[in-house]
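Dear colleague,

Thank you for sharing your sequence with our group. We've completed the structure prediction you requested, and as agreed, I am returning the results in plain text so they can be pasted directly into your records. Please verify that the sequence below matches your submission; if there's any discrepancy, let me know and we will rerun it promptly.
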Amino acid sequence: MIAKRLIGIIVVGAVMLLAGCSGDKAKMLQQLEQLEQQNRSGEAMLNDSLAESLVNYFDRYGDANERMRSRYILGRTPSLCTKCRSIL
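Please find the predicted C-alpha coordinates below.
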Protein backbone atom coordinates (compact mmCIF):
# COMPACT_ATOMS: atom_id res chain seq x y z
CA MET A 1 0.00 0.00 0.00
CA ILE A 2 2.80 2.41 0.91
CA ALA A 3 4.72 1.47 -2.24
CA LYS A 4 1.68 2.28 -4.41
CA ARG A 5 1.31 5.60 -2.64
CA LEU A 6 4.98 6.46 -3.24
CA ILE A 7 4.72 5.50 -6.90
CA GLY A 8 1.63 7.69 -7.17
CA ILE A 9 3.46 10.63 -5.63
CA ILE A 10 6.38 10.16 -8.01
CA VAL A 11 4.05 9.98 -11.03
CA VAL A 12 2.16 13.09 -9.92
CA GLY A 13 5.43 14.95 -9.48
CA ALA A 14 6.55 13.93 -12.95
CA VAL A 15 3.24 14.98 -14.50
CA MET A 16 3.29 18.33 -12.74
CA LEU A 17 6.86 18.88 -13.87
CA LEU A 18 5.91 18.08 -17.46
CA ALA A 19 2.87 20.33 -17.33
CA GLY A 20 4.70 23.20 -15.70
CA CYS A 21 7.98 23.14 -17.57
CA SER A 22 7.51 21.79 -21.05
CA GLY A 23 3.76 21.80 -21.57
CA ASP A 24 4.27 18.73 -23.71
CA LYS A 25 0.77 17.73 -24.71
CA ALA A 26 1.89 14.35 -26.02
CA LYS A 27 3.12 13.31 -22.56
CA MET A 28 -0.10 14.43 -20.91
CA LEU A 29 -2.14 12.55 -23.49
CA GLN A 30 -0.03 9.47 -22.80
CA GLN A 31 -0.82 9.73 -19.08
CA LEU A 32 -4.52 10.14 -19.87
CA GLU A 33 -4.48 7.09 -22.14
CA GLN A 34 -2.76 5.03 -19.44
CA LEU A 35 -5.50 5.90 -16.95
CA GLU A 36 -8.13 5.09 -19.59
CA GLN A 37 -6.51 1.68 -20.12
CA GLN A 38 -6.57 1.06 -16.36
CA ASN A 39 -10.25 1.98 -16.34
CA ARG A 40 -11.07 -0.36 -19.25
CA SER A 41 -9.19 -3.26 -17.66
CA GLY A 42 -11.06 -2.87 -14.39
CA GLU A 43 -7.84 -2.17 -12.47
CA ALA A 44 -8.32 -0.07 -9.36
CA MET A 45 -7.32 3.54 -10.02
CA LEU A 46 -6.00 4.85 -6.73
CA ASN A 47 -4.27 8.01 -7.91
CA ASP A 48 -6.82 10.82 -7.88
CA SER A 49 -3.99 13.38 -7.80
CA LEU A 50 -2.85 12.34 -11.27
CA ALA A 51 -6.40 12.58 -12.61
CA GLU A 52 -6.78 16.04 -11.05
CA SER A 53 -3.51 17.17 -12.64
CA LEU A 54 -4.72 15.98 -16.03
CA VAL A 55 -8.01 17.85 -15.63
CA ASN A 56 -6.14 21.03 -14.72
CA TYR A 57 -3.84 20.66 -17.72
CA PHE A 58 -6.55 19.88 -20.27
CA ASP A 59 -8.82 22.62 -18.91
CA ARG A 60 -6.08 25.05 -19.94
CA TYR A 61 -4.59 23.47 -23.05
CA GLY A 62 -6.95 20.75 -24.27
CA ASP A 63 -9.79 20.65 -26.74
CA ALA A 64 -13.35 19.78 -25.71
CA ASN A 65 -12.81 16.04 -26.17
CA GLU A 66 -9.64 16.00 -24.03
CA ARG A 67 -11.39 17.99 -21.31
CA MET A 68 -14.29 15.53 -21.32
CA ARG A 69 -11.99 12.48 -21.25
CA SER A 70 -9.93 13.81 -18.34
CA ARG A 71 -13.03 14.72 -16.34
CA TYR A 72 -14.55 11.29 -16.98
CA ILE A 73 -11.41 9.61 -15.65
CA LEU A 74 -11.42 11.90 -12.60
CA GLY A 75 -15.02 10.88 -11.95
CA ARG A 76 -14.06 7.20 -12.18
CA THR A 77 -11.18 7.62 -9.70
CA PRO A 78 -12.14 7.31 -6.04
CA SER A 79 -11.38 10.43 -4.03
CA LEU A 80 -9.42 10.44 -0.79
CA CYS A 81 -12.67 10.73 1.19
CA THR A 82 -14.05 7.59 -0.48
CA LYS A 83 -10.85 5.70 0.37
CA CYS A 84 -11.06 6.82 4.00
CA ARG A 85 -14.68 5.65 4.27
CA SER A 86 -13.77 2.22 2.90
CA ILE A 87 -11.11 1.81 5.60
CA LEU A 88 -13.58 2.63 8.37
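Summary note from our side: The longest helix spans residues 2-22.

Kind regards,
the structure core
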